[in-house]
User: What shape does this take?
Amino acid sequence: MFKKVLIAEDHESSGISVLKTLIDLEITDTHFVYYCDDAMERVKRSVLDHTPFDLLITDLSFDEDHRPQTIKDGAQLVSEVRKLLPEIKTLIFSIEKKVGKIDRLFKEFHIDGYVGKGRGDARELKKAILSLAENKKYLSLENKYNISKNTIELSSTELTILQLLAEGILQKNIPQHLQGKGLKSTSLSFVEKTISSLKDTFRANSSEHLIAQCKDLGII
Assistant: This one.
């Protein structure tokens, strides 16, 4: 079982819920912070003291206030902490529901577990922590189903075209932007065919509808 846990959560009620779950699991060496930058400082200190954390539980989004932050969100925090503690287990505890974003957390940030805030989240947290302690990844069955149902694999070129559309770049001007990014397929015909294919994939009847669909899924 985990010995030393760091919790980064800017909502006190959610933090209390996490702390209670850890106490139930007889994990008592817990450290709670409201800001990602503070979490990073605790990690640095633990490395210097040779008493490193073995589990990080963090929210995904943090409300901005009067105190400027270098690390803006939980995903960035995970990335920075892993540079100092490559073996640490990471668990995201968030209200985020977009399956594309959740899937990306596992694929790009290599998190170990994800628990959504809501009804029954204390039970899910406990299951997640126990799974991570056994070197297993954790994602609830509901989220696994939603991700397998909705996540669509896109190429880097397709993602770039979607992002350019989302930024308001006209379709006819996209080829020159692709050229500027060093991509090979940059003809207007290629762009038109790609966008048409994406509309079919996402069942969108316009470019605006396509972008809205992708944003809802957290793809862009």
